[in-house]
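Dear support,

Our group has been running a series of protein-ligand predictions, and this particular one with 4'-deoxy-4'-aminopyridoxal-5'-phosphate is the one our PI (initials K.S.) wants archived with full inputs and outputs. We had some confusion internally about which version of the output was final, so please treat the block below as the authoritative record. The input we submitted was:
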Amino acid sequence: DGQFVPWGEAKVHVLSHVLHYGSSVFEGIRAYQTPAGTGVFCLPQHVKRLFRSAKIIRMDIPFTEEQMSQAIIETVAINKLPSCYIRPLAFRGYCQLGVEPRTCPVQVIVAAWEWPAYLGPEALEAGVDVGVSSWRRAAPDTFPANAKVGGHYTNSSLMRMEAATLGYSEAIALDVYGNVSEGSGENIFVVQEGVIYTPQLSASILNGITRACVMTLARELGYTVAETLIPREMLYQADEVFFTGTAAEVTPIRIVDGRAIGNGTRGPITERLQSTYFDQVHGRREQNPEWLTYI
Ligand code: PMP
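Confirmed final output from the archive:
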């Protein structure tokens, strides 16, 4: 809300609307060490998505996109973090507890902290074991999947808890029609015969920023990329499957529902895209320099 406060003093009232109804929008952003200092990856894209999410739920964020970007940069700088995860959040605060949120003030926070590999330290190289969740993504006219809204993550948490209980690292959700949608906090890609496929936006997915970057990188490397409907069984037939996300970066999937993908290790296209992605975020590529905003 316009000022820096120590970690332990960042508090809200227990009757804040957001605690009761999930009325928030948020982002997850990473900043990386580069030869030119710390760079925030895809900052304008994340800030834009935050405001678009807010628009969908009729929330007016009381700052401009420029002010939000500046607050994010200053939060990284003041915490002296060479690389970190950044969480901007806009939420409905304390006023009255009816479901109609618009009488409650919109409050805004930005926090930053260190967050290593999201699906575990070995995941990036060895890949993860996952299962198709018994929980589906919400139907298109129920919860707007393309808005990154706090309350929507009840669905992701259910998926993630089920996966952990079954011994998986992560889950894959189908959409309401039974087509592949996404992970609990990642988009998904499937490689078959050298072609890269990913679910289309209307498959109840979040329009992932890493997804967009990886599609651009893949095309720069000469691959064909198709956004399409993906039937569940295509996962099992695939040569390679991988997740993308700000937190998960590019994580190979080695097993789906007990079936090995390819030969059960990170595939060659996944490896190439992953190393290109890491070169990009660490400022080691000449292409797409506008994807990094330096502190
Ligand atoms: N899907 C969901 C449900 C997510 O929470 C995330 C993480 N923000 C993603 C996909 C990946 O999006 P991004 O690449 O923008 O982090």
